[in-house]
Specification:
heterodimer, A: about 575 residues, 3-stranded antiparallel beta sheet, 16 helices, 17 strands, B: about 180 residues, alpha/beta, Rossmann fold, 5-stranded mixed beta sheet, two-stranded antiparallel ribbon, disordered N terminus
Chain lengths: ~575, ~180
């Protein structure tokens, strides 16, 4: 007999997503991904000044502020056919990279590592043994015996207080938890250290953006960071060196802690390199532009169908019609009036709430499609497209990660294992390492460009009468983000944000094809339906940010997951 | 530079942190009150006002290390829309599983629990909350929630007074920078 499990909400802190899975004989037989609240940025922006849209869009989601700001200014610039100064590109790129580094580290250590790491088991670890293991894996000074003893003591005191506090909702002692106590202790130490690194990434964003969480330095046409190396209030060498120091510390953590940890988990849970592939069509857009027009990039974009390398097709620029012409959204199974599939410029947003009906409409999330097909977006798409297109840093870091995980697993793991639940975590760490390298590169590009005498940061936009249409893409931490704008006589006539978590968390489409979350769950084991840790593992591997996908920030957060078995 | 920037000007000082999504009706209460306070008063250097938005898992960064932290937020509680509620940090920690606090993301309870484990819990935490009438897509506070602004403001001034902080009124006041209501 099959059992139905509902998990609501699934993210530990962010988001409002509900997942329904049907479990038959310990295996997931069907799944529904449900966005439970609606937010209409489209409605809010209609009639407004396009130059101000980014100020609103960066409030869509509290976590993805910067990414919605960047996509918005790019969309308006695209509509006006504008180029922006090189300094503006580099400063935006540094923002993008700093945010991405911090975001990936936080996601792994604070939102999903606890799906794999048993905190309670760390209490029985031998600190000296943990330190020896850590020192063998990495030169990171935070793996010392002293540090391990300190963290164990801290954990003991915490548990002695009778409360697990922040860890209270974990699935401790679950049969699917497999790490030895010493690895668990190392992971708890890194959980704490990641908090410090998160702060540093955030500081870099704050210096560039003026403020966090909502940055203030963007403008349609460039940035508002006055560059004057001799002026205290402007972007000067002092601030630039502070940014470089912060980035270097974050990058060191990625190389010496994040990459080895993910590889160890990949090797020790090698089973999870077989589950969770789901939709194997992949999409990523190019990013980190190197020129004013957005035609040359440090990160590649493209599409891949059915996981087949020979289907790879490049997305070459911020203007590429291959992307522009092929994106649509379906509302066949979403709570909007109608049953259409439309291009974002042509969409109208008419919410029509209904009850959850797995055979009809059941989600506030729309279903984006590329050439009519569901696509998986995110670090895995980024890494596969980088790998197949011969992007040198991606290939180098991916090969290193696979080699390291193979050593731990005691068997050879090739790039094909990346199409999986743990493959998404490996890919995210690889992307983070690539981003770290490129962040430092773009810091040098900015400093060299300023050193050559270029201090321009802004081109004033002009809005002609009549209609212009534009789209702005950004390859955000969670994947491809695109903002679509229609401007009429200098005012916004239509605006749509097609966000990464919509691509991944969207429901079935008019043809009944499931979205990536849904497809990735079917066929996976669930050892204990009352504690469906395995479902969480796969969903968390996507890094859900439903605050984005359904444009809502409403969630009580009072339970980390509600599990109903019926 | 706000917190999240390089370093606090004065270690051990006081922060007033407004939380909430300004695109979600009454959820804008926290940020609105921050803008109102900035427009009406001059604060000494040891007090920092932060429009925190909904920083999700970055929230602990804005909370850690203060001598006293006043959080302004929409809270879920029994009562009518627009009623002001004071909740102490200790209560939030105690009730972490049936959390009081906010009807939106940032997860105040989780952030406090995280700081309790990692270190950096503020010396004192007080939530000045308002019960929202309407949280949903759209901008602008509902009338009862807007009418609660002066009571919340008075509460904050009272707490600052107890902490030994004197604020000076701006005469005339500035216009509050609540751009989301334009």
């Amino acid at each position: 007999m099959s059992k139905k499990i509902t998990i609501d909400p699934i993210t530990r802190i962010e988001g409002h997503l509900r997942i329904d899975v049907e479990v038959d004989e310990g295996i997931v037989s069907d799944a529904w991904s449900v966005g439970t609240m609606w937010r209409g940025i489209e409605v809010i922006l209609k009639g407004r000044d396009p130059r101000e849209a980014w100020v609103f869009t960066q409030r869509i989601c509290g976590v993805c502020t910067t990414v919605h700001a960047i996509a918005s200014v790019r969309a308006v610039e695209n509509a006006l056919g504008m180029e922006v100064p090189k300094n503006a590109q580099y400063i935006r790129n540094l923002l993008v990279a700093s945010h991405c580094l911090s975001d990936h580290i936080v996601h792994f250590y604070h939102l999903s590592a606890l799906d794999w790491v048993d905190v309670v088991s760390a209490l029985s670890a031998n600190p000296s043994k943990a330190a020896r293991l850590g020192e063998r894996l990495s030169p990171w000074p935070g793996n010392s015996r002293k540090e391990m003893e300190k963290v164990k003591r801290k954990l003991q005191e915490f548990v002695k207080g009778g409360q697990l506090g922040i860890f209270a909702n974990g699935y401790w002692g679950h049969p699917a938890m497999k790490l030895p106590p010493e690895v668990n202790l190392l992971a708890v130490a890194h959980y704490l250290q990641a908090l410090e690194i998160q702060r540093k990434g955030n500081q870099a964003v704050a210096i560039l953006g003026g403020k966090t969480p909502n940055i203030q330095n963007l403008a349609v046409g460039g940035v508002a960071n006055a560059i004057n190396l001799d002026n205290e209030t402007a972007l000067n060498m002092n601030k630039l060196y502070m940014i470089r120091d912060l980035l270097e510390e974050v990058v060191t953590f990625v190389r010496q802690v994040y990459i080895p940890d993910v590889c160890a988990i990949g090797g020790l849970y090698a089973d999870w390199l077989k589950y969770g592939a789901g939709v194997t069509n992949y999409l990523a857009v190019p990013d980190l532009p190197l020129d004013s027009a957005g035609t040359a990039f440090d990160l590649p974009g493209g599409t891949l169908f059915d996981g087949k390398p020979e289907t790879y097709r490049r997305i070459s620029s911020f203007q590429d019609p291959y992307f522009r012409e092929n994106v649509t959204e379906s509302i066949a199974r979403s709570y909007y009036d109608g049953d259409w599939r439309k291009h974002p410029w042509e969409e109208e947003t008419v919410p029509q709430h209904g009850e959850f009906d797995p055979d009809k409409k059941y989600s506030w999330v729309k279903s984006p499609r590329f050439q009519g097909r569901p696509m998986q977006v995110g670090p895995l798409a980024q890494v596969l497209i980088g790998y197949i297109s011969g992007h040198e840093p991606t290939k180098r870091w991916a090969d290193l990660a696979l080699r390291t995980a193979s050593d731990v697993a005691g068997s050879t793991l090739g790039p094909e294992v990346l199409h999986s639940t743990l493959g998404r975590h490996l890919a995210r760490a690889v992307r983070c390492a690539v981003m770290g390298e490129l962040a430092l590169k773009h810091w040098h590009l900015l400093v060299a460009n300023i050193g050559a005498g270029d201090t321009s940061i802004f081109v004033k936009p002009t809005f002609p009468a009549g209609e212009q249409r534009g789209f702005g893409v950004h390859e955000a931490p969670r994947g491809t983000l695109s903002h679509w704008v229609v401007i009429r006589d200098g005012k916004i006539a239509n605006y749509q944000a097609v966000v990464p978590s919509t691509w991944n968390a969207g429901p079935r489409d008019g043809e009944g094809r499931p979205g990536p979350y849904e497809a990735s769950l079917v066929g996976n084991p669930v050892a204990d339906p009352a504690r469906p840790l395995e479902v969480l593992r796969t969903i968390h591997s996507f890094d859900p940010c439903l605050a984005c996908a359904i444009h809502t920030l409403d969630a009580s957060g009072k339970e980390l997951s509600r599990v109903k078995v019926s | 530079m706000t917190l999240g920037g390089p370093a606090k000007a004065v270690p051990g000082d006081i922060a007033i942190l407004g939380l909430g999504n300004v695109l979600m009706g009454d959820d804008a209460f926290g940020p609105s009150l921050i803008k109102l306070l900035e427009a009406r008063y001059r604060f000494p250097d040891e007090v920092e006002l932060i429009d925190g938005g909904t920083p999700g898992h970055d929230l602990p960064l804005y909370m850690e290390g203060w001598r006293a932290l006043i959080v302004v937020d929409a809270v879920k509680a029994a009562g009518a829309g627009g009623e002001v509620r004071l909740v102490r940090g200790e209560e939030i920690l105690k009730r972490s599983h049936s959390a009081v606090v906010s009807p939106h993301e940032p997860g105040l309870a989780e952030a406090l629990l995280k700081l309790r484990f990692a270190g950096g819990l503020p010396g004192e935490v007080l939530v000045v909350g308002v019960i929202p009438l309407r949280i949903g897509s759209g901008m602008g506070l509902s009338t009862p929630v807007r009418n609660a602004l002066p009571a919340a403001e008075a509460e904050i001034l009272r707490v600052l007074g107890r902490l030994g902080v004197a604020v000076r009124e701006r005469i005339p006041p500035l216009r509050p920078e609540t751009w989301w209501e334009a």
